[in-house]
Specification:
By secondary structure, the chain is an all-alpha fold. Helices cover about 75% and strands about 0% of the residues. The model has no long low-confidence stretch (mean pLDDT about 85).
């Protein structure tokens, strides 16, 4: 066996070992979700049996039926979350792209300093902003409405940063050629930059949808009416009413995960491409 064959065998063994390690870590991360789904199909007496029944011996659907038919209306919480999440999934990337274009392609005095100051907002804990937000929402008469979640969510520092990094990687020759042809900034943004930035826009849209769908603190503070509750709040309300019923809790959690999985699988091909392209130029 020559040296080349030895290197090839070592390379394949290394890749195989890495694949096995990554598969084990992936399985470890998936175990809580597997337990959640499994428990949602179990009877109460089987929840804490040992060894764990990863596949229920006697699966039942009654837990999932109860989640949708009892309590204050899980379907209403679901629709509220969908409305807010979809609205922000579309609006936040578009507004972030507009700001990112300004910070990356429009020259104005103090641009870099303003952008640096803007990035500093990422370091402020969201909990610090609850009181100012509360006062502002009261003044705007949007407290205890979905607008209290939608309006702040439309403006994200992370989204501007992420998309700006992508725009910085687009050659200046493209926009300069468009300027020579008579196009303005708005037309260049709409007809050149937006089509080129589909991966990063899709990636940010998926991230934003996940953030919004799982947002618990803002909904807890700014929503009082039960008819306005989102899924995280609705699950808490449901759990309090049902007591310690792990079957119903896990059934509600399983239902809450479905939209996230659908959005992820629909846009997963853009995620790696979006992150990679955003990291090309700092």
């Amino acid at each position: 066996m020559n040296a080349r064959s030895t290197r090839i065998i070592k390379g394949r063994l290394g890749k195989g070992l890495n694949t096995i390690i990554m598969a084990l870590f992936s399985l470890l991360l998936l175990l809580p979700m597997i337990w959640m789904i499994s428990t949602s199909f179990k009877k109460p007496k089987d929840v804490f049996t040992y060894p764990i029944q990863w596949i229920p011996f006697d699966p039942v659907l009654i837990n999932h039926i109860k989640v949708w038919t009892t309590g204050d209306g899980f379907l209403l919480f679901y629709l509220n979350s969908l409305k807010i999440s979809v609205f922000l999934m579309i609006g936040a990337p578009l507004l972030a792209a507009l700001a990112a274009y300004g910070f990356s392609r429009i020259e104005f005095k103090g641009r870099n300093a303003i952008f640096l100051l803007y990035l500093c907002l990422m370091m402020i804990p969201q909990q610090v902003l609850f009181v100012p937000k509360f006062i502002m929402f009261e003044w705007m008469h949007i407290y205890n409405t979905h607008w209290a979640l939608i309006l702040p969510g439309l403006f994200t520092v992370f989204g501007v940063f992420m998309i700006r990094q992508f725009f910085m990687s687009i050659p200046h020759e493209i926009s300069e050629a468009a300027f020579i042809d008579g196009a303005g900034h708005f037309r260049i943004f709409l007809q050149l930059f937006l089509p080129l930035s589909k991966p990063v826009l899709a990636t940010f849209a998926i991230i934003d949808f996940t953030w919004t769908w799982n947002d618990y603190e803002n909904a807890l503070i700014f929503l009082l009416d039960k008819k306005l509750y989102t899924v995280p709040l609705g699950m808490q309300n449901f759990m309090l009413e049902a007591g310690v019923d792990y079957n119903l809790m896990m059934a509600a959690a399983t239902a809450g995960v479905v939209p996230l999985l659908i959005v992820f699988f629909l846009g997963q091909k853009y995620i790696i491409q979006g992150f990679s392209s955003s990291a090309v130029k700092g």
